[in-house]
Amino acid sequence: MGPHPAVAAIRLAVRRVLHDILTEQTAEHTRARNPHERAFAPLVFVACSGGADSMALASALAFEAPKLGIRAGGITVDHGLQPGSDLRAEEVVLRLRELGLAPIESIAVSVGRDGGPEAAARDARYAALDDAAERHGAAAILLGHTRDDQAETVLLGLARGSGIRSLSGMAAVSGAGGRYRRPFLHLDRHTARKACMEQSLPVWDDPHNTDPAFTRSRLRHEGLPALEKALGKGVVEALARTAQLSRDDADALDAWARQVETSVRDASGLLECAKLYALPPAVRRRVLRRAAIEAGAPAGSLFARHIEEVDRLITGWRGQGVINLPGKVVAQRQGGRLVIRQG
């Protein structure tokens, strides 16, 4: 008799991702190494908070990795935002060790205030994960985001009015060199929790996940249930499909913008307003966003309203002055050219 369907589902999801990682890493290592060297065994980490999603992911990684000759380790990040968080991190380390993962790290971080508490905690967490991956030479880090998390992310992006890229949610592969992998984006949160129950894995329910002070928590416990009550079941699945469709469209438009960017610049590299005006708005705004980021504007602080203001220098020119952008970047129109530079 095989494993419970929930356990089988999480293992299959992880197995597919590990196959991808192994194929990529083997090809890269083969190109770089001496043919007579020993076979390469990549290291894959799981980022684990101790919650149901990440514990299910850790258990599946521990089960599948050895069969593929992959080393499997674990990382837990202590944000220090709750009393006893250090003890909680120690418990997670013990659970990961019991699963047979190695190496295992518990990393304490200092959470700032930029962008609000949720964004600041996320930034600190990813910085710690990036650092650990670099130190250990890890091929990838698995994250336990589920289809429910994806639906919440799409709704948050919709509320911000940030455009189609924001509606595309989280990518299955992201980060420098494709470091972050999300095997569970097509699985719901219930499947991960059920897998933990079937394997008798203890899980921790973060009180922040039910704290109405946090936007995502309110969305999870109030917003999505209200939508399902009004629209019927299937909202989460529909939002996840929207994310994938939006990502496909956004990727295509980004590629288009990259292809045409050189054609709208003059010999000195400045953007020509007349040529920009001729582009479809979605493509033009992507060119403008890329130019602003190249000039030093932080991508995470560059919002749709900033790009719209710059776009009006092209489409609604009435002698406007300098447009101030994040990162002390300025944009202005000069003699039919758009100049975006450090102010």
Automatic annotation (TrEMBL):
Pfam families: ATP_bind_3, TilS
Keywords: ATP-binding, Cytoplasm, Ligase, Nucleotide-binding, tRNA processing
GO molecular function, one term: tRNA(Ile)-lysidine synthase activity
InterPro entries: Rossmann-like_a/b/a_fold, TilS/TtcA_N, tRNA_Ile_lys_synt, tRNA_Ile_lys_synt_N, tRNA_Ile_lys_synt_subst-bd
Ranges of residues in domain tRNA(Ile)-lysidine/2-thiocytidine synthase N-terminal: 44-222
UniProt entry tagged with the keyword Coiled coil: no
This protein's name: tRNA(Ile)-lysidine synthase
EC number: 6.3.4.19
Catalytic activity annotation: cytidine(34) in tRNA(Ile2) + L-lysine + ATP = lysidine(34) in tRNA(Ile2) + AMP + diphosphate + H(+)
Residue ranges annotated for the tRNA(Ile)-lysidine synthase substrate-binding domain, each copy included: 271-338
UniProt comment concerning the protein's domains: The N-terminal region contains the highly conserved SGGXDS motif, predicted to be a P-loop motif involved in ATP binding.
Species classification: Bacteria, Bacillati, Actinomycetota, Actinomycetes, Kitasatosporales
Biological role: Ligates lysine onto the cytidine present at position 34 of the AUA codon-specific tRNA(Ile) that contains the anticodon CAU, in an ATP-dependent manner. Cytidine is converted to lysidine, thus changing the amino acid specificity of the tRNA from methionine to isoleucine.
Chain sites annotated for binding ATP: 49-54
Family: Belongs to the tRNA(Ile)-lysidine synthase family.
Class in the EC hierarchy, top level: ligase
Subcellular location: Cytoplasm
